[in-house]
Amino acid sequence: MLNIEHIHHIAIICSDYERSKKFYTELLGLKIIREVYRKERNSYKLDLSLNGDYVIELFSFPAPPPRISRPEATGLRHLAFAVSDMEECIKSLEEKGLNAEPIRIDEFTGKRFTFIADPDDLPIEFYEF
Q1: Distance (Å, rounded) from C-alpha 44 to C-alpha 58?
Q2: Mean of the per-residue pLDDT values for the chain?
Q3: Cis preceding-peptide flag for 71 (omega within 30 of 0)
Q4: In whole angstroms, what is the distance from residue 54 CA to residue 59 CA?
């Protein structure tokens, strides 16, 4: 048995570090734990937390290939955040200039969810619990 307890973090490689840093910190509200410039890799690494829990490593690398989001490709599909109030979430996204897709209903749980995209077209889901 592996005894896996929870997801430790998610790593995201971005094409424009400053734009993605602003998106995840100023628009989504994640908090910076640490930011490191790795000269030997010409790369930034930004560790981000949500409610005090370490959740995302944001990396920059010179000229990363673009992500294929549509049509959906093999591999990690999206990042999902739990929200308690879908209307409040969408209102807050709109106030920040982010347009959410129309609300959908999970056919298995009956819960509502929506998506936006990060600056590199990574799908970001908001799922009402």
Answers
A1: 8
A2: 94
A3: yes
A4: 15
Q: Alpha-carbon distance 129 to 85, whole Å?
A: 8
Count the neighbouring beta carbons within 10 Å of the beta carbon of residue 33. Answer: 14
Cα(119)–Cα(36) distance, integer angstroms: 21
Q: At 40, phi and psi to the nearest 5?
A: -65, -20
**Residues 59 and 11: beta-carbon distance below 8 Å:** yes
Q: CB–CB of 92/85 below 8 Å?
A: no
38: its two tokens: 């790795």
More confident residue, 6 or 58: 58
Q: What are phi and psi of 122, to 5 degrees?
A: -75, 125
Collapsing DSSP states into helix, strand and coil, what is residue 23?
Answer: helix
Instruction: Give the helix ranges, DSSP H, for 1-129.
Output: 17-22, 86-95
Take residue 43 and report the two structure tokens written for it. 């790369």
Name the residue among 115, 91, 89, 88 with its Cα closest to residue 101. Answer: 115
Structure confidence by residue, pLDDT tens digits, 11-64:
999 999 999 999 999 999 999 999 999 999 999 999 999 999 999 999 999 999
